[in-house]
Amino acid sequence: MIVVRARVLGFCAGVRRAVDMARSAALAEPDRPVFTLGPLVHNARAVASLAEHGVKVLGEDSLDARLAGSVLVIRSHGARAETAERAKELGATVLDATCPRVVASQRRAADFAARGWSVVLVGDKGHGEMVAVASRAPGAAVISTAAEAEALELAGPIGVIAQTTIKKEEYEAILEVLSRRHAVVEAADSICPATLERQGALGELLRRVEAVVVVGGKDSANTGRLYRSAVEAGLPAWHVEGAAELPPEAFRFERVGLTAGASTPDEVVDEVAEALARGKA
Description:
Elements: E1 2-5, H1 13-28, E2 34-37, H2 44-52, E3 55-58, E4 71-74, H3 83-89, E5 93-96, H4 100-114, E6 118-122, H5 128-134, E7 141-143, H6 146-151, E8 158-162, H7 168-181, E9 185-187, H8 193-206, E10 211-215, H9 221-232, E11 237-240, E12 255-260, H10 266-278
């Protein structure tokens, strides 16, 4: 079997930065508790690796006495507006690993709200990034489909911000609806280039292979979108978190493409590539 890797795949700069910050904090003071508020990234293997270095995960609503004297790392998705101050009040040192592009979306949401505009966020409801951005614009609507855009009843000018990992085509479809129904719509250019690069690289890959394996966490939004794009292209495709999940049928092709979400560690990508090359998980 020939394994063809996508031109761009795996950890993006924002995720790598967050992981490095958490690991460095744990190594710098081994006796000091280091927490992340929710999983640092949407990848079980990456979270397990951090746990081996002493980085523990707190539930996103678990700001309590355990934080006294600890280090709290705010993950790349960001956190609610009040989180950092509350953590400091409880005695934690806060390391903000929020992706700079997510920070830009937070600021844009706050600006729209301060101007009295209606704010529409386009992305996955309940996703950490969307929750964090929405906290900067109370009352913001979070939608994910053009049908939901059709159903919105909003007054006045509208500011629109996309989740950084959404597909460009999904965002554009929703903007078309909002622009048709409302007189003033200002859309933020908030999709991360890393997302666009991975989607573009997947498009190139699909033309060169017979099947595709997408590696990444099952709860990773950008990995899921890569997988759906491969399925929509009509090729056999599988979404796996590691080599152990590769199905027997994945080994029946001569040329298999390999891509990975932005929260997938390099070593996991390599593991899957090696399993495909040797013909067994």
